[in-house]
Amino acid sequence: MEIINFLIEHYYLSIPLLTVIILLILSNAKKGGKKISCQTLISMSNQDKALIIDIRDSESFNTGHITASKNIPSNELSRRINEITDKDKFIILVCDMGSISPNAGEALKKEGFENVCLLKGGINQWRIDNLPLI
Fold first, then answer.
1. What is the mean pLDDT of residues 58-75?
2. Which terminal residue of the chain, N or C, has fewer Cβ atoms less than 10 Å from its own Cβ?
3. Which residue is catalytic, options 95, 100, 117, 123?
4. Is the pLDDT of residue 30 over 70?
């Protein structure tokens, strides 16, 4: 309650603070590429419009991954970027929970990839939706 009273009494400080927080959240939400759902990923993959890159480590990838996905761990992405040859397709990045893929997406965008998407919720959301893994 004291915090609310402070914010009200010092509105001239509170408004810029809230503005910065909102802008930070918005910029972070757009970082790395467009976030897509599991269903959108399936649709894009079925239409052969997507290249799925799983950026988890090899051990996690081998325990279960999305059909037709390619494993390039995030810590190897910069040196293995030449393995991503089809710049015309959407590049969909998959990590564990959707928290690492934005940084990888930014790295791909710096290398000239324009159609970068991120799987919202990562492989955990895929499992929650009870979708098949290989």
1. 93
2. N
3. 95
4. no
